[in-house]
């Protein structure tokens, strides 16, 4: 099944699933050489695949670990430019508790060797460049509440 990533009238449209994984006051993010921002683990939803299924699949592909229970926290419409390309992304973001046996050090993504997972202290979230920028709002939601947010830029 192909990823839902389509060129539409000069814009790349993507359907994405991401994971908000927290442990000890830190958020798990992806960073890489040449990137001036961080983003959440996850990736494109495939045709015929639900967003929770995509989040679980991406987690396993990136970490080699089975995912824990996933709880939908929000849907984000994200409009941005990446490498000169206009992008429109619909992202489904799920909360997941960090696995107990997760290493505390940097870990290379299993499916993207030039990118790595790192723990970003939540206290730095407001000053660090993390995409989408509305992550703090999703993290602040009480359990069971789901929010729809729009991020431009």
Automatic annotation (TrEMBL):
InterPro entries documented for this protein: NUDIX_hydrolase-like_dom_sf, NUDIX_hydrolase_dom
Co-factor requirement: Mg(2+)
Q: Give any GO molecular function from the UniProt entry.
A: hydrolase activity
Identify the SUPFAM superfamilies for this entry: Nudix
Taxonomically, which superkingdom?
Answer: Bacteria
Query: Domain Nudix hydrolase, which positions?
Result: 12-143
Key word Translocase present in the record?
no
Write the record's keywords in alphabetical order, separated by commas.
Hydrolase
Give yes or no: UniProt keyword Hydrolase.
yes
User: What's the protein here called?
Assistant: NUDIX hydrolase
